[in-house]
Design brief:
This protein is an alpha/beta fold and about 400 residues long. The chain is about 15% helix and about 20% strand. It has five helices and 21 strands. The protein is elongated and about 85 Å long. Bound molecules: zinc ion (ZN).
């Protein structure tokens, strides 16, 4: 998170307090605060790592699923064909295939497999907390057909190679800054192929555009294209190949990139990772998921714009904090956060709250704001922090370092 562009709020003043209830000592008193006393944290409370950038702070581990509502990634689809309409699926068939493809690709996102490599690993299995939706515009269904003899073909080899060319994307993309545009293209015609040219299912991610070839000619089923879609969308969401490069993850070992396990030599066991080339592509590691969700939660990331901004909608189902928690990594909350009596919540990074939402600190609960940024990312105002008191038992809010509270509704 880069805070350079913001003026820091100076902390240290007891803030504005509005008493919503006043009465005798055993009743619940509620105060709303917009600024907080600063207290120096002890050494072991302070973060020693880069809490807001560490990919693993964004991994949707099973125990923190409540903090990772399923994000919805917008996709639309284009079928490129020749003007005589002989080089791709018909309109009806294409629409049916897109629906099957989306269903299968989403099913795979919900059935993450255990990593094959390294052999004997105990890498945790976490579920990706995102899914694809077909994004339509006002007057269409998000599936488009283009008949264009010049731009319809795809070639990844030889004289006519154009796999990295973006002309077709530039000409036909719809809503490219907020939607992943998937282009299904035929391979170049036979007379333009070199002898070694292979007509296979293949893809390339170019910005928010994605070119996939070979769907029509190979007759592959949608479920066979789904792994390719997940791989290429993985690139768009910020992942790199894992077999031969430093992909920023320690839990994706470099490997010979074998298509399948042969039980011998280099390929005793093949990788099953989605970002290698293999006959599975069904495993995402905690670090890979962390990298994706870090982009989703980065206010300035292009990937965040591909999501339906569900975090702008207030949900009445509050998030209850019953046990001590430390929040590393930025988060976009959908609801009130209630820190229950006896629990402590420490926030270390950016947290968005939707319009009307509050953070409530019950009597005997503690909220620790450690150089964090609480705001509304939807151009609206959230409700601020409410501290409750019952008798001698008080909710406590303390802060450390540069804490920013913004977009709080005025009384
Ligand atoms: Zn790739």
């Amino acid at each position: 998170m880069n805070y350079r562009y913001f003026a820091w709020m100076s902390i240290g003043v007891i803030g504005m307090i509005s008493l919503l209830y006043t009465s005798c000592s055993r009743k619940l008193l509620t105060e709303r605060i917009t600024q907080i006393d600063q207290v120096e944290l002890s050494k072991n409370q302070k973060s020693t790592t880069n809490a807001c950038r560490d990919a693993l702070a964004y991994t949707p581990y099973p125990e923190s699923q409540a903090l990772f509502p399923t994000q919805r990634v917008r996709l639309n689809f284009h079928f490129l064909n020749t003007e005589d309409k002989t080089n791709n699926y018909s309109i009806d068939k294409s629409k049916d295939l897109v629906k099957q493809l989306l269903r299968n690709a989403n099913l795979r996102l919900k059935t993450n497999h255990k990593m094959n490599l390294p052999i004997g690993n105990d890498t945790p299995v976490c579920l990706p907390s995102y899914e694809y939706i077909l994004q339509s515009q006002d007057d269409d269904d998000g599936i488009y057909f283009h008949y264009d003899d010049e731009l319809c073909f795809f070639a990844n080899k030889g004289k006519f190679r154009n796999n990295y060319n973006t002309d077709v994307i530039e000409k036909y993309a719809v809503g490219l800054d907020t939607i992943i545009n998937v282009f299904f293209m035929p391979h170049i015609p036979e007379e333009k192929r070199s002898k070694s040219y292979k007509v296979t299912r293949t893809g390339v991610a170019l910005g928010n555009g994605l070119k996939i070839a070979g769907f029509f000619e190979t007759g592959k089923q949608p479920w066979e294209i789904a792994t390719l879609l997940n791989h290429e969308v993985g690139h768009i969401l910020g992942l790199r190949h894992s077999w031969n490069t430093n992909d920023g993850c320690e839990d994706t070992p470099r490997n010979p990139n074998c298509w399948s396990s042969k039980g011998t030599g280099n390929c005793t066991v093949a990788s099953n990772n989605v970002m290698d080339y293999n006959n599975s592509q069904m495993a995402w590691t905690p670090c890979q998921l962390g990298l994706i969700h870090r982009q989703f939660n980065d206010q300035y990331a292009t990937q965040r714009k591909l999501l339906v901004p569900q975090w702008c909608e207030y949900s009445s189902k509050a998030l209850l904090i019953h046990e001590d928690q430390v929040w590393e990594g930025a988060k976009d909350m959908h609801s009130d956060i209630i820190v229950k009596s006896g629990a402590a919540l420490m926030i270390k990074c950016r947290v968005h709250l939707p319009q009307g939402a509050m953070i409530k600190v019950e009597p005997g609960a503690t909220l620790i704001l450690d150089a964090c940024y609480l705001h509304n990312d939807c151009g609206m105002e959230w409700g601020g922090i409410e501290v409750m008191t019952r008798g001698k038992k008080k909710g406590l809010v303390i802060s450390n370092g540069d804490v920013r509270l913004e977009n709080i509704v005025a009384d």
